[in-house]
Amino acid sequence: MLLENLRYMFRRGFTDKVSSKSDDPAMREVAQLLKQRGSSPFARSIHVRMVDAGSPNDVELEEGLMMSPRVDAERFGVHFVASPRHADVLLVTGSVTKNMHIALIKTYEAMAEPRAVVAAGDGACYGWEGKDNYALAAGTGRVEDVLHVDVKVPGNPPTPYQLLAGILKAGQVLAKKAGEQHHRK
Amino acid sequence: MEDKTRQFIDGIESSVRAGCLNEPLERGNTLFLNVQQKHLIPVCRACMMDGAVFDSAFVSSADPARGEFNVYYLFRAAAIGRMVVISARGSSFDALSETVNAAQWDERKIQDLTGLRLAGIPDSRPLIFHPESGFPAVHPIGGMQCKPQGGMEYPMAGTGEEGEFEVAVGPVHAGIIEPGHFRFHVVGERINKMETRMFYLHRGIEKKAEGNQAASILPLIEQISGDEAVANSVAYCSAVEQALCVAVPKRAEAIRAVLMELERIYSHLADLGGMATDVGFTLPASRFAVWREDFMRLNAEISGSRFLHNQVVVGGVAADLDSAKIAKISAILKKITETQTLERMTFTSSTFLDRVFQAGAVSKAVAKDLALVGPPARACGMQTDLRCMLPYGAYSQFAINESIEKEGGDVLSRFRVKLAEIKESARIAHSLVQHLPPGALHDKQAQKKHLDSVGVGWAEAARGSCTFLVEIAQNGTIRRLACRTASFRNWRALEKAVEGNIVPDFPLINKSFNLSYAGTDV
Question: How much is the pTM?
Answer without folding.
Answer: 0.95
